[in-house]
Design brief:
With 388 residues, the chain is an alpha/beta fold. It has one domain: TIM Barrel, CATH 3.20.20. Helices cover 38% and strands 10% of the residues. It is built from twelve helices and eleven strands. Strands 2, 3, 4, 5, 7, 8, 9, 10 and 11 form a nine-stranded parallel β-sheet that branches. Helix 8 links the parallel strand 7 and strand 8. 51% of the residues are buried. Bound molecules: zinc ion (ZN).
């Protein structure tokens, strides 16, 4: 992240909400937002999209090994909507599937997911919620990275209506702050050597009790202050100017945000503005496991059928860490056994759409030299003792 873009401000502390423990497994807001099990981006995505031609958006073929082309190749696909990202309207090579898990880290659900992925040696991307990251769950952030998976931001507060908090400029500030704070918490997690160390860093950056959640209002008004103090923390921990343990490239709006909430073009424009400022991609989905559908979330057959169906059709598959574990186990087992299904890391999808890998794209977005930024599935300088 470029430090020059940060504005240091001094704000008064505001009251925090008390942090329930553990974090709620199922945000009610998302349960209602994703009741459509099929590609849940109906209204916004059904709006006319100016496609130069379908081939411009063709995803694939997925190369087994990728060169490191120049950043000039990291072009936004002609006719693509919004900022860099994956959308339901993207054409996609059938059977190539990116697994994504939302709403973690969760102290019991996330380890089960990681165990199953390890068993089948499958890569995944975890869109984590900032408020779920704590002294108790930060080791899961470390484990996700150590086991070769990718981290993305799913905001801090999981508010599905961030584009409507006020005037457009206020909404942009809110969205930027929500993802920026989650990225800070990912960095802190990767540097933490113990629960006490996590809490100490939390207190230093946020100047609040780590046992309490940050309020959305505090995040919006103070995230630049938090970022400045985070930079100071990184320097104290031996990071060079601009270096981070992890540069977050991927993000996903809670509940799909304006892309499924029928906000129309205005809401999408607000969210896209925030993504440009954040230098993060937007990762929507093509199919969902259905684990947010209230009356079906425990239905083993429903869940396993969705996992089979949407892994076969290919694209980004939305699952939540809290999915019924035996259904996920069966679903992953079927994917591995199905020759028509290939589970690919999200970085492969970036290469296929933008003709460069995630690290190169991140370097371009941050205005950094090629090869100088490690992100989106890789990590920067490892803190001493990391991975233990
Ligand atoms: Zn979510």
């Amino acid at each position: 992240m470029r430090k020059g873009s940060l504005v240091v401000a001094v704000g008064f502390l505001v009251a925090c909400s008390t942090r329930p423990s553990p974090a709620p497994a199922v945000p009610a807001s998302e349960a209602t937002a994703s009741t459509a099990v099929t590609s849940a981006e109906p209204a916004a995505d059904s709006a006319p999209v100016a496609l130069a031609s379908l081939s411009d958006l063709k995803i694939g073929p997925f190369a087994a090994e990728a060169a490191h082309p120049e950043q000039s190749l990291c072009t936004e696909a002609s006719g693509a909507r919004g900022f860099y990202g994956f959308y339901r309207t993207d054409a996609w090579e059938k059977g190539n599937t990116v697994l994504t898990f939302d709403d973690g880290p969760h102290p019991t659900a996330t380890p089960r997911v990681l165990d199953l992925l390890a068993k089948h040696e499958l890569p995944a991307t975890f869109f984590v919620v900032g408020r779920a990251i704590s002294r108790d769950t930060y080791p899961l952030i470390q484990r996700i990275v150590a086991e070769g998976h990718t981290l993305g931001s799913h905001s801090y507060s999981h508010d599905v209506k961030m584009t409507r908090v006020g005037a457009p400029a206020d909404s942009v500030e809110t969205i930027v702050g929500q993802h920026a704070v989650t990225a800070i918490l990912i960095d802190i997690s990767l540097m933490a050597k113990s629960g006490d160390d996590f809490d100490a860093m939390f207190s230093q950056v946020f100047e609040r009790d780590p046992a309490q959640w940050l309020t959305p209002g505090a995040i919006k008004s103070e995230y630049r202050t938090f970022s400045a103090r985070h930079d100071e923390l990184l320097a104290e921990r031996g990071y060079e100017d601009g270096e981070h343990p992890y540069t977050v490239l991927y993000s996903r709006p809670p509940g799909g945000g304006p892309y499924v909430e029928h906000d129309g073009a205005a809401g999408i424009a607000i969210y896209d503005s925030a993504l440009r400022e954040l230098k993060m991609m937007n990762v929507m989905w093509h199919g969902a496991s259905g684990d947010t559908v209230p009356e079906k979330r425990s239905d083993y057959g429903f869940l396993t059928d969705n996992l089979a169906k949407y892994s076969k059709s290919g694209g980004v598959l939305l699952i939540h860490d809290y999915i019924r574990s035996d259904a996920l186990a069966k679903g992953l087992e079927r994917m591995v056994q199905d020759d028509a299904v290939k589970i690919v890391p999200i970085d492969d999808a970036v290469r296929a759409k933008y003709r460069c890998d995630g690290n190169t794209l991140t370097a371009k977005l941050h205005g950094a030299a090629p090869g100088s930024v490690l992100a989106g599935g890789s990590i920067g300088p490892l803190p001493a003792g990391f991975g233990g």
